[in-house]
Write a structure and sequence with these properties.
This protein folds into 3 domains: 64 residues, PUA domain (Archaeosine Trna-guanine Transglycosylase, Chain: A, domain 4, Roll), CATH 2.30.130.10; 113 residues, Transcription Regulator spoIIAA; 191 residues, Rossmann fold (3-Layer(aba) Sandwich), CATH 3.40.50. Helix content is 29%, strand content 29%. It contains 10 helices and 20 strands. Helix 2 packs across helix 4 and helix 5 packs parallel to helix 6.
Amino acid sequence: MITIILKPKKEESLLRFHPWVFSGAIQNIEGKPVEGELVEVLDNRRNFLAFGHFQIGSIAVRVVSFDKIEINQNFWNLRIEQAYLMRKSIGLVAENNNTYRLIHGEGDSLPGLIVDVYGDTAVMQAHSIGMHEIREKLAHAIVEKVPQVKNVYYKSESTLPFKAAIEPEDGYLIGHDTKSYIALENDLKFQVDWLLGQKTGFFIDQRENRSLLERYAKGKSVLNMFCYTGGFSVYAMRGGATLVHSVDSSAKAIELTDKNLELNYPGDTRHTAFAEDAFKYLNNLHTLEQQYDLIILDPPAFAKHRDALRNALKGYKRLNAKAFEQIKPGGIIFTFSCSQVVSKDQFRLAVFSAAAESKRNVRILHQLSQPADHPINIYHPEGEYLKGLVLWVE
């Protein structure tokens, strides 16, 4: 096995169980590792620290084990089983809910791997070459250890490092094409398209926040910006909203939103969807003299890397400022950021700045994060990517 030797004192983060080894911490590499290969990491006194997948880039090793044990099929089976049993124990595997995240990268001690379950199908995404190379082993572990799963679909063409010398293909590793699938989330139905949809086909991470929104929706007019599949809209309808408007720049997203509303509320005229740019739609509300009781702002990541952070914070400020303009007195705003490089404090400051400019009296009702099936490894705080605020606007 290839051996990675760290510089003096560079083992400290690994001794605190942080699952990454940065390239700048490496003193020597004994051998010529291939990207994705399992390597052994030692300190400069040659004491064992960890096993991990080697990769080219600033993160040189993603740790899969801090124990000196054999990394074989049984190892992967146990990791998958542990993740499944945690989801089952907290009630996510239930008759009224067959949609959940099974593996959340570092949060489940499987860095570089995402797996979402939709009924009898698991959709797997590899974000590292190491996980890509063992995809077949992982697929077999999922089918063996997760009773409901019969099919495993691999969807990594757009998530693997673009410089890697591989040509990944999306497709079924186990099982067959189910064409279209209706997922069940808290007794609500959603059409999931893992073949062509974003991410794995559905944004599971907002499940608990959608449930919270439902509690506030009764008797209110609701605007759901960046609606994608219409998840917040469906929950608002069940919560008793009098009117729900869904907005997304993608015509395909609007088509999917309409399908999901029809699945749950056939013929219900309370809902209308608009294929339009978010800022353009909010600007046009002045001429329409339309205001809402409840607004959801759930945009895609404004910053996917630190170079874009400054512009992202300006974007969040601008977007929230528009919402403060259009919310009725006594209205509620659900506002989110899913940008990992944007901290909770930075996001909150952007929203604070927008509120101050609006000269509205604003109170924070809830501070939101990702749900339990998107766990944060306590030794890897970078895994906390989703942050949100629920605001009362006088």
